[in-house]
Amino acid sequence: MGKKADKAGRKRDKKIEKQNKKREKKAKKLKHISSAITPEQRLDMIATAAYYIAERHGFDPLRAQQDWEEAEQQIDNTLK
């Protein structure tokens, strides 16, 4: 791999890490979620839902963020 590919990979990894931290922080702030569901369990549920949403769209990488947000909304509505 060349320098450009390495740099792009590191940039993508940092972006994903930042998004994951933001999601975890949001999960901890949500007070309406049942205390029986941990933030980690919520994230697992969202990841599973996002997988099936992405599957419906042919795993289009350009929709990854949108698919995740849709899954997050579905799970949070279910847990209310």
Description:
With about 80 residues, the protein is an all-alpha fold. Helix 1 packs across helix 2 (about 40-55) and helix 2 crosses helix 3. The protein has one domain. It contains three helices and no strands.
Per-chain topology:
Blueprint (H helix, E strand, L loop, with lengths): L2 H27 L9 H18 L7 H16 L1
Helix pairs in contact: 1-2, 2-3
Brief overview:
With 80 residues, the protein is mostly helical. The chain is 76% helix and 0% strand. The chain has one domain.
Notable traits:
76% helix; flat; 80 residues; mainly alpha; 3 helices
Overall tally of domains = 1
Rg, Cα atoms, Å: 15 Å
Low-confidence stretches: none
Mean pLDDT: 85
N-to-C span: 47 Å
Q: Output the helix-strand order.
A: HHH
Largest pleated sheet: none
Residues in helix, %: over 70%
- Give the helix tally: 3
Number of strands: 0
Global geometry: flat
Supply the helix-strand structural class. Answer: mainly alpha
Beta-strand percentage range: under 5%
